[in-house]
Queue: 3 jobs
Job 1
Amino acid sequence: MLDRRGNILLEFALILPVVFILLVGMLDLGRFGIQKSAMLQGARAGGQYAIVAPDQSASINTTAQNATGLTGVTATNSVFCECVSGTAVACTTTCGSGETLKTYVTVTTTKAFSSVLSVATLSFAGMGSWSPPTSVTASVTLIVP
């Protein structure tokens, strides 16, 4: 009869690196997803504030940053206008032939993302490679009534 006492230990040692890479990948994906959700919530809050006060750019950005609940977040906003026909125009002009001017605000939040992996790119022996994201960004565009 053959002696098989070390088989389980050997199989475990062979599969451990694969399991470790999968766990680290799931950890990074989870962290990224949570931060992306927070960034989207911040962008929405900034957009909702912009509906009330579209000319207060600094307050819109501060509201978006604070609503994320994260540190190191930057927020930007921009206001643009278009006629009902879809033609982009300056917000100080009027649309011709009875068209209504529509005003929009876009709020974008950005934060640096640091992966659990310290490598910039992970290669899989000629089968491909994976680079972790370096930033998390969320953007919301709302119409200003």
Note: The helical segments are 7-52, 57-68.
Job 2
Amino acid sequence: MKRRLVILVVVSLLFGQGCYTLRKKFVRKKKPQKEPTVYIDFKEYPQKPTKEVYQDYYLFVEGWLDELIQSLEEGGNRKKQKQAIKEAIVNFKQMLYFFNEEGRKQVGYLYGELLKIEKQLTSPYFNETKASQIARKVEYIKREFSRKLRWSQASLWMD
């Protein structure tokens, strides 16, 4: 009887406390991750945009429109087409920040057309026939873009 009582007490002590202390002893603790140090270099930027920055955005928009036209004509990857129109819109929007109100009115419709094309490309009803129509529309937008937004023309609309 005493033996059973001792075994019962030992078993109740072992199961009563559980294995939490053993687990705590043998499980690795997570090391706190340090946030990387960020250094910011402040510099003064000119108020009026430079010709080089404008030309960079101009070339980016033209390049992405070329990429979109090529992808639409070849029946390429939809993901690539969506990326091309998205990047063209982002860069065109950056160009619009350079212009005054008159300049935005003159070329704002091109931005609206690009947004419509993006909506058509993301539509679930997009097919090969629409791809050729959109390719022609993008070619037209690219011609208008090149004609109206050259540096010589666009510099008149900048503040």
Note: The chain has a mean pLDDT of 85.
Job 3
Amino acid sequence: MMLDLLRQILGPWYLQIKFLHVLFVAVWIASTVVAYTYYLVPVFKAWRRNPHDQEIIALRNWTMERFDQGIIFEHVAFPIIILTGPLMYVLGGWTTATNWLLLKIILVCLVAIPIEIVDYHLSHFRGNKRRLREAGDAAGYERSIQQHWMFFLITSPPVMVFAVLIVFLAITKPF
């Protein structure tokens, strides 16, 4: 009953919803690529080579705080993706009997959502570097920097693979 009403009201807007979904997927994927690749990685490599260099530590901290601010684009895009994806599923009459879609849903649920939850925490909540600095929590600040960097080291390879795979599945619908 409720799904029929939803299909009746929003069904004519399927392509516009799909456009929003694809647009925000692009924002989600691309919003951190440049900052991560050309700012965070070089600064963290320099810091690992010279862990006691105060200038490099200051640059690392500045870069990480800017990253926490810039990641807001990704963190606004992801909830929109999570809303429009299931909406398209319902409006388009899709089923999980479609193997490519089932795999895509599994990847989103088992890889993307858990990674994003941790990323939100590290960037905006208890791991927010600017707030820790302003509170004078030097130990918490350093711990948050270390945790965020470890998070990047662990999650970047799977994100690169699975984000591309999710987009590939959506476009090619291979099986």
Note: The helical segments are 2-10, 14-30, 33-49, 54-70, 72-91, 99-124, 129-134, 138-172.
